[in-house]
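Morning!

This is the sequence you dropped in the shared folder:
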Amino acid sequence: MEQYDIIRGPVVTEKTTLQKELHNQVTLKVDKRANRVEIKNAVEKNFNTKVKQVRTVQVKGKVKQRGRIIGKRKNWKKAIITLMPGQRIDFFEGV
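The structure's back. Tokens below.
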């Protein structure tokens, strides 16, 4: 698996924004098959930062209903990455 295939994108919510400001943590959507070591290496190479810790969570897809039609969203994997002091990742610079 390539390092660019592992990271799918950032998770931007109120909670992740507070984690970024208070605890220097970044939350990313990652490939379901990737493990912590692969995620750490991909983040360090792609963003030129030092990673202190990686925690992962399997997020279950929600069941949604639109009228009588019932569907399910996909399951996905979330990685909460704690960066070393002084390191940072900016997704939306200059916005």
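Headline: Helices lie at 3-6, 14-23, 36-47.

More detail when I'm at my desk.
O.
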